[in-house]
């Protein structure tokens, strides 16, 4: 075996040298042989070690020329796992890219744009985001079926990286990641739970005590966060314990569950057993379990029968997260709006089409015998309780997620009507400038295929909303202006002001009148320049997403929730980002905050000028506008500098 590996090593070295000597235009002819030999070397631990010996020379030889891995400073940790899990050469190229990063980390390769500390942080985040490769599942299913040669290669790479990097640093990064995601309070928490479950395997590694304690706390939050549940984690036995427990013990359980939910936004499956028991036998303790405010308690007391039925239909161990949504929904006072009561009641026995049932009944729900109506009601509770926790998942459907969030805040009646129509008829319609558009009559939307790792309401509505939004945009194609100007007010509803501006000239594609764009946003949105007009409803805006180096990644849709001063007196834009991860580094020192500056659950925020520097379009009310000439020239210049030196490098400026 050693001889075979040595022979492969010689062949790889020769192929790498041949590639290095090739002219730039001809390198693609020699890359394939390098990748094929790298594949063979990476099939054993010994071979991977040998491959790493050459990692410092990969860039010089042109291994990554002409592909997405060419610029090491443009790479994103979040994309690594997906590439390693795909069969074919891409997974090998990704592996070689990680070896390049490791050679930078260890000082074997000095990269002009990626310092060693940055490369180390990159790899620590890669490991933290892909713990299933670092600690593969040791199940019978995994043993029998396996994951394929490419996954075995990925696991081998991660073992190698783990041996070179500090578990302490990886664990610390992992805790940061879990805390960053949980504080945003998403409705869909599968990814977070998977991270926590896998992370528990690191508890016995050489990590510091505070990191270990935090991991254990999060693990308790999703398994047994109370004294009684820790004593008896089996669901059936726990239920029997509750019957025997006295009132003081039950009250303490309620408080402990409430504390865990409020700290983490996570709900253990066993909490559903407790909730269902209280619902039948001790409903007076439910406000304590949900940690309700005065508004929430009043709402609960006025609607006990409805709450009892909602819990009975929708709260099960598989849907325990609904409990958190219920607490927030009651605190919002949603049930004090009387017309909504029958709209919610209607969902209990509405006839749900088979194709819709298939979308919302996940395998674990079917296995547990949950009804589609119960899952739907739970989804409605979550969305109405956590309107800023709605995510677009893996879909390019930020417009649809943004719409559901807006309606869950300010158009609940409309939202519930759309849900009812979608599940009953598998069709919804909207009007665009007097013309009705039916989703059932449209073939495709923005997303070719909808991935249904979504909350039930999104899973029901997004396929329809995506098609309708796309159809509306098609109807504006020949108008010579950005179609969002007309589509957004029609699609989202009366909450959206009719004024609209975009920095991109539709005919030339150039950035145009940027100075005027910045001044207008200040004059319509900044409290010091807009005559004191406050925002009433969320405002949909278009932003540029950039990476940690300020390089343009793409366009995105978010909603400004409010503009206010933080505890330091700095004006900030607080916004809803539907991409499931709002705490991001956009380069140039622009890092979105999710909890350090007075953000509400689900909000992100940036200093006002930094947000403007990433924006390309917004709506405004021309009747609520200050004087643009009063905006400080220095502020406009600073913003333009940030824009030109980041996403602006991709555009021509006029």
Helix content: 40-55%
Q: Average pLDDT value?
A: 92
Spatial arrangement of strands, main beta sheet: 3-8-4-5-6-7
Q: How many distinct helices?
A: 32
Give a short account of the largest sheet.
6 strands, antiparallel
Specify the oligomeric state.
single chain
Number of DSSP strands?
8
Which strand-content bin applies to the residues?
5-15%
Inertia-based shape: globular
Distance between the termini: 64 Å
Structural class by secondary-structure content: alpha+beta
Estimated radius of gyration? 27 Å
What ranges have pLDDT less than 50 throughout 5 or more consecutive residues?
A: 138-146
Please describe the structure with a list of short key phrases separated by commas or semicolons.
two-stranded antiparallel sheet, globular, 654 residues, alpha+beta, 32 helices, 6-stranded antiparallel sheet, 53% helix
């Amino acid at each position: 075996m050693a001889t075979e590996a040595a022979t492969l090593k010689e062949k790889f070295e020769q192929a790498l040298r041949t590639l290095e000597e090739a002219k730039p235009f001809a390198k693609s002819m020699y890359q394939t042989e390098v990748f094929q030999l790298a594949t063979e070397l990476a099939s054993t631990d010994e071979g991977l070690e040998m491959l790493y010996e050459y990692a410092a020379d990969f860039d010089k030889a042109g291994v990554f020329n002409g592909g997405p891995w060419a610029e090491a400073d443009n790479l994103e940790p979040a994309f690594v796992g997906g590439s390693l899990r795909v069969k074919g050469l891409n997974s090998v190229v990704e592996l070689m890219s990680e070896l390049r990063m490791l050679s930078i980390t260890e000082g074997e390769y000095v990269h002009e744009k990626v310092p060693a500390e940055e490369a180390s942080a990159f790899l620590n985040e890669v490991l933290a985001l892909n713990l299933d490769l670092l600690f593969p599942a040791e199940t019978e299913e995994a043993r029998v079926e396996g994951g394929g040669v490419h996954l075995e290669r990925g696991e081998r790479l991660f073992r190698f990286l783990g041996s070179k990097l500090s578990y302490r640093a990886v664990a610390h990064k992992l805790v940061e990641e879990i805390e960053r995601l949980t504080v945003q309070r998403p409705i869909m928490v599968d990814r977070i739970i998977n991270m926590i479950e896998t992370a528990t395997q690191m508890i016995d590694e050489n990590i510091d005590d505070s990191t270990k304690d935090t991991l254990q706390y999060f693990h308790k939050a999703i398994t047994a966060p109370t004294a009684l549940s820790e004593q008896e984690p089996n669901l059936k036995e726990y239920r029997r314990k509750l019957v025997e427990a006295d009132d003081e013990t039950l009250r303490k359980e309620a408080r402990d569950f409430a504390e865990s939910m409020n700290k983490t936004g996570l709900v253990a499956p066993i909490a559903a057993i407790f909730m269902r028991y209280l619902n039948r036998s001790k409903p007076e303790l439910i406000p304590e379990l949900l940690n309700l405010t005065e508004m929430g308690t009043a709402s609960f007391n006025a609607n006990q029968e409805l709450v009892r039925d909602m819990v009975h239909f929708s709260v099960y161990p598989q849907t325990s997260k609904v409990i958190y949504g219920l607490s927030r929904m009651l605190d919002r006072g949603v049930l004090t709006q009387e017309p909504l009561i029958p709209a919610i009641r209607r969902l209990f026995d509405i006839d749900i089409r088979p194709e819709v049932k298939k979308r919302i009944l996940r395998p674990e729900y079917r296995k547990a015998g949950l009804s589609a109506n119960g899952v739907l009601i739970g989804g409605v509770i979550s969305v109405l309780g956590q309107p800023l926790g709605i995510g677009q998942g893996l879909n390019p459907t930020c417009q649809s997620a943004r719409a559901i969030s807006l309606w869950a805040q300010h158009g609940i009646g409309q939202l519930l009507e759309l849900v009812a129509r979608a599940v009953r008829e598998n069709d919804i319609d909207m009007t665009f400038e007097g013309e009705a558009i039916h989703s059932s009559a449209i073939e495709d939307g923005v997303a070719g295929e909808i991935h249904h790792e979504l909350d039930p309401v999104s899973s029901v509505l997004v396929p329809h909303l995506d098609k309708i939004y796309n159809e509306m945009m098609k109807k504006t194609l020949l108008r010579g202006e950005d179609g969002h100007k007309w589509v957004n007010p029609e699609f989202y509803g009366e909450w959206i002001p009719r004024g609209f501006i975009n920095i991109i000239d539709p005919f030339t594609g150039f950035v145009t009148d940027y100075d005027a764009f910045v001044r207008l946003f200040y004059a319509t949105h900044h409290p010091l320049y807009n005559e004191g007009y406050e925002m009433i409803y969320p405002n949909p805006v278009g932003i540029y997403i950039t990476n940690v180096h300020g390089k343009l990644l793409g366009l995105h849709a978010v909603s400004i929730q409010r503009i206010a001063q933080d505890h330091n007196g700095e004006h900030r834009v607080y916004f809803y980002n539907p991409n499931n991860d709002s705490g991001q580094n956009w380069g140039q020192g622009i890092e979105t905050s999710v909890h350090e500056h007075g953000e509400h659950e689900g909000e992100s925020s940036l200093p006002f000028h930094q947000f403007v520097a990433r924006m390309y379009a917004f709506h405004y009310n021309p009747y609520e506008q200050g004087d643009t000439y009063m905006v400080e020239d220095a502020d406009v210049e600073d913003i333009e500098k940030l824009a030109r030196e980041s996403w602006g490098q991709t555009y021509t400026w006029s």
